[in-house]
Amino acid sequence: MSNRVAFRVEGLTKTYTTGAISxxxxxxxxxxxxxxxxxxxxxxxxxxxxxxxxxxxxLDGPSTGHVFFREHELTGMNDAALTAFRREHVGFVxxxxxxxxxxxxxxxVALVTEISKRPMQPEEALERVGLGxxxxxxxxxxSGGEQQRVAIARAIAKRPEVLLCDEPTGALDSATGVTVxxxxxxxxxxxxxxxxxxxxxxxxxxxxxxxIRLADGQVVAVEENADRMQPSGIEW
Amino acid sequence: xxxxxxxLLRDLRRLWAQCLAIALVLGCGVMVLVLAxxxxxxxxxxxxxxxxxxxxxxxxxxxTRAPKELLPAIARxxxxxxxxxxxxxxxVIDLPGMEKPAQARVLSLxxxxxxxxxxxxxxxxxxxxxxxxxxxxxxxNFAEANGLTxxxxxxxxxxxxxxxxxxxxxVLSPEFxxxxxxxxxxxxxxHYGVIWMNEEPAAAVAGLTGxxxxxxxxxxxxxxxxxxIAALDRLLAPYGGTGAYGRDRQVSDTFLxxxxxxxxxxxxxxxxIFLIVSAFLVNMVLxxxxxxxxxxxxxxxxMGFTGREIAAHYLKxxxxxxxxxxxxxxxxxxxxxxxxxxxxTEFYRFPYLIYAPGTASFAxxxxxxxxxxxLGAFRxxxxxxxxxxxxxxxxxxPPLYRRGWIDAAAExxxxxxxxMMILRSITRWxxxxxxxxxxxxxxxxxxVACFFTFDSIAAVVDEAFTRTNxxxxxxxxxxxxxxxxxDAAAHLPxxxxxxxxxxxxVRLTSGWRxxxxxxxxxxxxxxxxxxxxxxxxxxxxxxxxxxxPESLATKLGVAPGDSVTMSLLAPPRExxxxxxxxxxxxxxxxMAYVSAPAxxxxxxxxxxxxxxxxxxxxxxxxxLYAAAKAAPAVxxxxxxTDIRSQFDATINENLTRTVVVYAILGVLITVGVIYNAARIxxxxxxxxxxxxxxxxxxxxxxxxxxxxxxxLLTLFAIPPGxxxxxxxxxxxxxxxxxxxxxxxxxxxxxxxxxxxxxxxVAAFVAALLVRRxxxxxxxxxxxxxxx
Lengths: 236, 787
Hints:
By secondary structure, chain A is of the alpha/beta class. Helices cover 28% and strands 29% of the residues of chain A. Chain B is of the alpha+beta class.
């Protein structure tokens, strides 16, 4: 972790309008994420965690406010530029893995390496998450934890600068969840990937450099984690 | 309204675009059925009503010169209800400003006024005054084409004498609903007409005072036409009878019947294709809908709805989809039918038109249309009824892919993963891919068959105008003359080469089969008019025996080597046993050929001709026309470039209209199939495709997965489409061939290429239309929902 700012978020608001009802998901967020850090976003359902993550990952745009990644302002970029940003800089890991069912583990990773500038080999990425022996299995032939690790392999295979994870262990039991967290921890440590991790699970905060707490669409607290733990030490 | 029915209406509204795509395809099938049967029925009703009111004769006969005293004997033939004789002759008409002489057939009107048979319907003016020798009535089409109106006069060359005739009225006749000159391939209203003249002057000119040379009969109900014809032939034989015939060989009626047969064939061949494709589409859409509706079905079952009630619900949904198509087809079919019936009056002249498509075609097409969708829905509906509630309420198990030979092959090719997704989707759901392929193949088949008509007509044109008839001008002679007339004709202005032809009516008999036709004698050295072998190449005239067109040989059940009895229906009226030496290709008309020396040897006569085929210097045509008008021996001039240009004009106008309609139908099928397939893909894979977008794939790259699969399937559809197109064209070739024209089964590479290209482009546009929806997918929300 360094002191250089990677993401700078200023006055971010997001309002969803469906019919006559509008819901304010974010109510003015100011935040900075640093190069190489692993942050955990905590907060109850509806606190705006996912909305914030989607905006950081250029999946969605804010209603007002600005987001800068290094010297580039994401807000105001067109769709093509946002796609390029995701393609070159961001890796995603979702609660439901989002693997392509018609592609094997290796092919799911290759999907991304084929469109990246300096990727690692799909085999290497899968090796990192401990799936070197399950290369030719289709998603339907893998357990939930294995599927999630394929998703992580797919996310890290392009050596992204940013890894955004939305409840990556949400659908997994404790033991399996730990193997997934280890994969994320190592990616952050070895590749220096800025990692933002959403969770409901407070135990997971212990592996973070910093913990950002959200409530009601606002940042209510930012804590530094002085005694980081390896995921193997975490239990829930 | 029950809640379940309200759901039904909302489902239909939600699926409107897919319903529309189905409705369009289904509507096409319904439309073609309503259109073809409607037009056929309307034309048939119009024809029957007209024939009945105008007392169209049922048996026709011509003779050289029969005394009027013979008429009572003819009327006494058992089952003859009415017999009427008249004078008929061909004349040349000299209209001011018209270089090429026009031809007309003159028919006499009885002294008492209007004839009893084949009564002309007066359209303008009146029939000629029996007291005025120079008054005539003229066929309406000829008058309209030449700006002739009652009160105007024109000059006709009657048996060598120029005579000014005054028009009393314009008429239509049931004998000339389709008016076509002798030897012509197409109607030419400017150059061929019919003139009705009082009997006395007509008979005087023709040298037939107190005699007749043309006869019409009406028969009693239930009469045996062959028996009457045989009796009539016996009576007329001494007077130069050339063989009586029924309506089946009457020129105008034959063309009209051919048209009605074609319309009937169209109603049988085309609609099933559209109905089958619609059934496939309904199946595709409903299967997918039921898959997505599994939780709803489970819920309904849990609430106590029976399988039967649920099946009925989805069946109603499919019928709802069908009703739109049926209504659309009805309206389009009714409207286009009225337009097309009207169009027929350009070629088929009726004094009135009855447009009555009839309720049967609506009922049948409606039942077939709904039947198609119900059949299409059957499998999907049955599976919905069989789902167990507990199973239904779980999300469907994710598709399990397995590696197979195709993966090994694909890996060897180092294909991109997005391409692998396409290949695996096809191999994982081969049934679904097959439906798409079959649908597009059907569209390609329709397109091939629709453009095939151009190839076929081009082949007919090539055969008729380039290979067979290479003369520029044909002179029809008023009577048979010695072949030496060729030398005289060679001295006519501009004539480069002269070949004579001699045609006479014959009856060919083989066993119990017989056919009335014309035999034409040719010299073996003829190069202007040629005989073609079965493959369409010029063939030498065999020194002995008959050359028969394929269709006639089939009718008679003979092949080269067999022999037939040829009875001459003109002097010397003898019968000969003649071998069949060759079977030839002939698309237009049905005529037999024989070498001139062989024929005249049989007839024990010196060679004669009654037609002259000329190669001329076209610059001299005006002088040739002038000479022809002045020559009493010539009663008609045919200019082949004219025939060709009329043929082209008529065909182009008619065919282009038809082809445009069918090309639209082909495109609609393609769009219907691909659009539905794409929508299904999109809804089933939106999650997967959204994931790709999240991973940084561009819209074009993600679109490739969707569009690429459909285009690959479209490519797969091309070979079976071509095969189907060939089969479909063969059906059309067989179903649409008539006695007048045979449709050769010739399909050019260009036709295949155009059909494939149109389907490909249509599929691409349809797929792109759906791809645009990908842009609207909200990435953040698409990832939250699990289907």
